Fold:
Amino acid sequence: MDKKIGKTNIKFGWCWLFIGILEAMWIGLFAFQEDWLGGYTSLARRFLRLSHIAFIALSLTNILYGLYIDSINLPQKAKKTGSYTMIIAAVFMPSLCLLSIVNTLFQSFFFIPAVSFAVAIFIMALGQLKRDQ
Structure:
């Protein structure tokens, strides 16, 4: 029998959440400097805030995903695909936000976490619908 697929998402989620908290602490050191990264409304600073939110939200989403993925009524391959695409979304979204601060070329790759997240959520939703069948 395969090990629990959800454990991967849960472990990843907690580790990623820790990194998100470290980023929040770092942002907090400079948050009250009005001209930091071009000021509060600058694109760079907005990307930094978005990366922080992505770290936290997608970490918690991975933990939740891990708690439920093993209980759905889908083949193991589908569950693994959902698990891995959820992790891909969590890695790429904050990373691309941070990289976009340095070079706007990276903004072209936001489809990677968006599609990954959509696939993972579709798999979970499908599994939840089939759960009672």
Observations:
- The helical segments are 6-30, 43-68, 76-102, 111-131.
